[in-house]
Amino acid sequence: MTQTVYNFLTVDEINFLLSYYDNKPYTSEKTTEYQGHNIVKNRHKDSDYNLVDGPIYQLLHPKLEKLLGSHILDSGAVLESHYPYQPHIDSRKRFTDKFYQHNTDEKCVDTAVLISLNEDPSFKTIIFDYFSKSLDLTQVPELKNNNITASSVKDNIDLTHFTDQELKFVDNLKISNVYNWKVGGLVTWNRNQLHCSSNFYSSGLQKKALVFFF
Length: 214
What we know:
This protein is of the alpha+beta class. The protein has four helices and ten strands; from the N terminus they run βαββαβββααββββ. It is 17% helix and 30% strand.
């Protein structure tokens, strides 16, 4: 089940987060090939949500606990997305190091959380009504077997970054939620739920968000 909460964070809270993360170093960078060139796909910074005495945990944990209940951090990062994500699920990776588990009595809620740090009309996260533990895009879902209905919403979403196979795969899938990015807004989804980004590449902008996996 997806949830969307606009105004999850106030303007002052967002400004604090942007200032806090601004001078932190990037911890990873992924690239991709686009029109014969190697371009940045996304960059990450440490979120510091694992630091229970730090300001990020102190700010976000009460709000997330109210929304999700007791939860364990699997992983999290500040995401700077330069090129749109194609359809995928968020595979689960449990950390055994107690550094990531604030309370061993807490339960994993198997939920992904995205908090927008910027916005643009081209920034959309599309969440499909399709769940899988392992994703094989060559096995196109059959409408009659999955009891799903096509959604005309896709007609208004730019998916031009999809391959032909990816377009075929999602063609008849129902859309559960389209999250239009707003600064301070939040969206959640189940980690084995298919989702993607709209194609914002032509805007020349980079999406910035906090992404957590619990």
